[in-house]
Design a protein that fits this description.
Pfam families: LysM. By secondary structure, the protein is of the alpha+beta class. Helices cover about 15% and strands about 40% of the residues.
Length: about 210
Amino acid sequence: MSVDFFLINGGFIFQFPVNPEEVNISRQKGYETITMLTHGEFDFPQGEKVKEITFSSFFPKVYDASFCRYKNIPDPNEAMNMLNAMLKAEKPCQFIITNTLINVPVYIIAHNTTFRGGESGDIYFEITLRTWREPKIALRSGSSAQKVNASNLPRTNLKTKPKTYTVKAGDSLSKIAKLELGDSSKWKNIYQMNKKVIGNNPNLIKVGQKLVMP
């Protein structure tokens, strides 16, 4: 069963070129400790804490079919800059591991890189993701408390209606990227989003195919 790792930030899709050997998911139970005079401390459960997901891998300089998930891998420095940009993003990204139950909104809270001698060009990294969830606010009036669901408040919109493009005669992915995105080099983003439609060869697009735009 094929498994791939993706981070989606708005219309931008980033696929990790090399799958990590393992993924660590930290789950903890939250507690609030209250100290009562003469009775000591008491722990009150507060529900599950936000999960942290950690894994490490590397960005190869040269494509190798034995471990790379796709051919048009990004330059290691470019890939590292992409992760740094998502680290600074104010809105959460969507983290997906295909063919698993992991499809959650996250923030990148740590991104560490390592350069190893003797492996020129490759960049190793470790990344920590923290799952995001709708906040709940307790409003107190006198002695009563009322929980307000964040759905009644302004919220981050993670769902956007995808824009599509219908392939015409003479089109190529770079031409479509130039026309729709203003940058022909973004054809890779279009290809990654539509790989199942296009197939293994990004140069063989067919008239009438509907492609989802980043």
